[in-house]
Amino acid sequence: MNLRLNRHAALATVLALASTSIGAYGAAAENISAQALKAKTDYCKTCHGLDGQGFRGSAPMPRLAGQQPEYLASQLQAFIDRRRTNPVMNNVSHVLDPEMVKALAAYFKDLNPKPLGGGAKSPSSDGKKIYEEGVPSANIPPCASCHGTDGKGADAFPRLAGQLPDYVQRKLANWDKERGQKKDQPDNSSIMQPIAHDLTEAQVKAVAAYVSQLN
Ligand code: HEC
Ligand code: HEC
């Protein structure tokens, strides 16, 4: 499979689906005071960790630090629209207006703590192979072709580097139940759906362990 073609094809889909026009992601929002932003980010950090590195509570709270602003904003919007379901984040996000979403996305991209680590241990040589080469026999493309060789993502393709492995495992296992829940509002979750679906449990564990160690 040609990596470039693959990413280009996916990008075309992403662009065609881009429905919101929140504007330049990653640029500071103009109408949000530093004080209002700090009050919000302090709140986010009670769950997502003081440096946005993630946290293990009753459920794994994902790392937000260094996340691609376009992806982070798109997920907040997905929680608001309930295209993505999670009772906690559906509650947290519904009060956020578009300017605040933009400001939050810009804020978290600049944090750069070390990966939290922990979680499942697995020989990461398997995970590395899946990440870089995919699983050709199951027609699974290399994760690197969309999420980047360094796992840092780009635009609508999320960063996976340093993400909590238990979070990654749960998201891949539950993709169909949590993402793309409004069939009349298709979104980028459909790009990842067949991949999440086709990975075996062992492959998910291995690749989750691998990306969690990327800096
Ligand atoms: C009470 C705890 C809590 C608070 C407060 C909270 N979150 Fe979350 N957040 C979660 C949990 C739990 C998840 C994982 C949801 C899932 O498993 O799908 C999550 C997921 C997310 C995601 C999806 C991440 C990804 O990689 O797809 C984003 C984005 C996010 N939160 C942003 C925020 C922002 C911004 C704030 C502050 C305005 C915030 N959260 C406040 C608990 C919280
Ligand atoms: C064709 C492009 C493409 C490939 C290949 C791909 N992904 Fe994705 N992935 C995406 C997109 C796009 C999203 C964001 C979906 C959304 O916005 O709902 C995503 C989201 C994810 C998420 C959710 C991240 C989060 O923070 O919740 C995980 C985990 C993930 N991918 C893991 C993988 C793994 C592991 C592989 C390789 C086995 C892989 N992806 C291959 C495009 C791809």
What does it look like?
The chain is mostly helical. The protein has two domains: about 5-10 and about 115-210, Cytochrome Bc1 Complex, Chain D, domain 2 (Orthogonal Bundle); about 20-110, Cytochrome Bc1 Complex, Chain D, domain 2. The protein has eleven helices and two strands; from the N terminus they run ααββααααααααα. It has a two-stranded antiparallel sheet with strand order 1-2. α6 packs across α11 and α8 (about 165-175) runs antiparallel to α11. The longest helix is centred in the N-terminal third of the chain and has 15 residues, at about 5-15. Residues about 1-5 have low confidence and may be disordered. One heme C binds near residues 143, 160, 171 and 207. One heme C (HEC) binds near residues 47, 48, 104 and 158.
Sum up the overall morphology in one term.
globular
- Biggest sheet statistics: 2 strands, antiparallel
Radius of gyration: 17 Å
The CATH homologous superfamily of the largest domain is called Cytochrome c-like domain
Roughly what is the average pLDDT, rounded to an integer?
Answer: 90
Number of domains: 2
Low-confidence spans: pLDDT under 50, at least 5 residues? 1-5
Strands side by side in the biggest sheet: 1-2
- CATH class bucket of the largest domain: Mainly Alpha
- Structure class: mainly alpha
Number of helices: 11
